Amino acid sequence: MLTIAPEVEVLARFGRALADPIRCQLLLALRNAPAYPSDLADKIGVSRPRLSNHLACLRDCGLVVAVPDGRRTRYELADPRLGHALDDLRTAVVAVQTDRTCVDADEKDCC
Fold this sequence. Notes:
By secondary structure, the chain is mainly alpha-helical. 57% of the residues lie in helices and 11% in strands. It has helices at residues 6-18, 21-32, 37-44, 48-60, 80-96; strands at residues 64-69, 72-77. It has a two-stranded antiparallel sheet with strand order 1-2.
């Protein structure tokens, strides 16, 4: 049986979170400042139920936290270093090759 190091599990979890464009938009929006779900839904143009599902996924992955704020709930990155990591990843991917498209892994090998 294959043993996976904890660091690999964490990176794979982060990768799964980044695999969805809506979750990427949420993480990028939250890297700038905490936000309320209604504002996030409006900003990225998705329905509130759909946004709620994605926020739940990001919470389950440990990437965002829900902070009670009176009768509302505010979301923010679980650790400020995630914002720096997202910026580094974003700029590194753009710097490497801008003319590549990653196809679905089910279709063929990615990149």
